[in-house]
Write a structure and sequence with these properties.
Blueprint: H1 2-17, H2 31-47, H3 61-73, E1 91-92, H4 94-106, H5 109-113, H6 120-123, E2 127-128, H7 141-151, H8 171-189, H9 197-203, H10 207-225, H11 231-242, H12 246-250
Antiparallel strand pairs: 1-2
Helix pairs in contact: 1-4, 1-8, 1-10, 2-3, 2-4, 7-8, 8-10, 8-11
Length: 263
């Protein structure tokens, strides 16, 4: 489950609770992602040589990473395009980034050798030119934090188990509930004063908006990739996830059942 469902949301929450752990660096918002995307893509490409297009023996892994990185970060010459480009981007969608890198890691050789690679769809959504025009809605956050606070027993301990869940009956139901709990968690764990522009881009300005964003961004791909669903593990994951501490969320620690709820 951690590989196909909760990972994208988990890392997104971790970045909100411990931003420094998410790295950064580079000269543009997308430069760090481009480096990771290039490294991951090239590793899979070299592990899956296309029998219909044998690689040039002189083309090394280093050459590949350099080529992919520049194609992602640089302004390309007229007439040339790149499926995954962060040139001119002002924001990195961390949920999409995590799903992209996870999709590359799990891609079959057929996925890798497709034109374009099967994972480029989600990877092309990572870098955006998002604006903050929706930030004005933050006037509603005061009320939404109360909902999180009423269930959160002390900010340092996090949710404390007050978020209601029901036994999920499908992968879709599981992903929706996981998103709901995740938003309750992040609003309980992140103080209102720390919910700035980047937070609002990833989690909205209210819990309800956060839930809608996570479900729309993550669940369609997650459900599509879930070939084996375990209702018992999914239920245990949700119950334990609802009681998880802020410290564990920041450290990307999840219940074991979240690893096996959806394979």
């Amino acid at each position: 489950m951690i590989k196909k469902t909760s990972l994208a949301i988990l890392v997104l929450l971790s970045c909100a609770l411990a931003p420094l752990a998410c790295g950064g660096g580079g000269s543009s918002p997308g430069s760090d992602f481009c480096g990771k995307y290039a490294q991951a893509s090239c590793q899979r490409s070299f592990a899956c040589p296309d029998p219909n297009n044998p690689p040039d023996p002189s083309f090394t892994m280093s050459d590949c990473v350099t080529l992919f990185t520049h194609a992602c970060t640089d302004k390309l010459p007229a007439g040339e395009t790149s499926d995954v480009s962060c040139y001119g981007a002002t924001h990195v969608n961390t949920a999409a980034q995590t799903m992209c890198l996870s999709a590359i890691a799990m891609a079959t050789c057929a996925d890798v050798n497709a034109l374009p690679p099967a994972y480029d769809g989600i990877c092309s959504m990572v870098c955006t030119t998002a604006t903050t025009t929706g930030a004005g809605g933050s006037t509603g956050t005061g009320g939404s934090t109360g909902a999180g606070g009423s269930t959160g027993a002390g900010g340092s301990t996090g949710a404390g188990g007050g978020f209601a869940t029901t036994p999920p009956t499908s992968a879709t139901d599981f992903c929706n509930q996981f998103s709901n709990v995740s938003c309750e968690q992040v609003y309980a764990c992140v103080p209102a004063a720390s919910r700035g522009t980047t937070f609002q881009m990833d989690f909205g300005t209210t819990i309800a908006e956060c839930e809608s964003m996570l479900k729309n961004q993550s669940c369609p791909t997650i459900v599509q990739n879930c070939t084996t669903f375990s209702p018992s593990d999914a239920n245990a994951c949700l119950v334990k996830w609802a009681a998880e501490t802020c410290a564990n969320i920041a450290d990307q620690i999840t219940p074991d059942e979240c690893n096996t709820a959806c394979l």
